[in-house]
Amino acid sequence: MRKSMLAALAAGVALAFAAQPTLAADKLKIGFLPGVVDPFYQVMQLGVERAAKDLGAEVVTQVPPTWGVEAQTPLLDAMVARGDLNYIITAPVDKDQMVGPLKNAVDHGIKIITVDTYLGDGDYVKGPVKFPLSYIGSDNVEGGRIAARGLAKAIGGKGSVYINSTNPNVSSRKSWRRSIPTSR
């Protein structure tokens, strides 16, 4: 599953960049700003680095030590202040509070791609937040089904389990728009 996620992310990033005009003499520089130090984001970083290598691009990674707007925003601001990034791929830690800081990056000429978490309502065409080029995310509903089947098998099909949800104000398009049927 890790390899398929890595390959899917690399392909998605490559496709997002392929749709953009190529840069003449400058080497493409991509900023990667995940949500926090976490194995999930470490795998994502490998995908970004693989796609960048395929494109002949350089990746600059900043990883917040803790989850939160107050940890992610200064790192984003530092990436913008560099003045040499063409793109930033980020997993916003808050779908509403990160709109302003990311819009600032766009105002400085940096294109934004969101991964794992979208901004606003996630509709970058008709929604209130239109500046990201793309959103790349997994199908969290199907991931939940796979995990539930595994848990059910692990406890012999009977019993109770506790599932702890994610952080508030973090959404992915699939989990936000669909609910998990309880009869599976």
Strand content: 5-15%
Number of helices: 6
How many beta strands in the DSSP annotation? 5
Radius of gyration: 17 Å
CA-CA gap between termini? 22 Å
Order of helices and strands: HEHEHEHEEHH
What integer is the average pLDDT? Answer: 83
Largest sheet: 5 strands, parallel
Regions with pLDDT < 50 over 5+ consecutive residues? 172-184
Q: Strand order, biggest sheet?
A: 2-1-3-4-5
Shape: globular
Coarse structural class: alpha/beta
Q: What report would you give on this structure?
A:
Residues 172-184 have low confidence and may be disordered. The protein has a five-stranded parallel sheet, sandwiched between helices. The radius of gyration is 17 Å and the shape is globular. It contains six helices and five strands; from the N terminus they run αβαβαβαββαα. With 184 residues, it is α/β, with parallel strands linked by helices. Helices cover 42% and strands 11% of the residues. Strand 3 (87-90), helix 4 and strand 4 form a beta-alpha-beta unit.
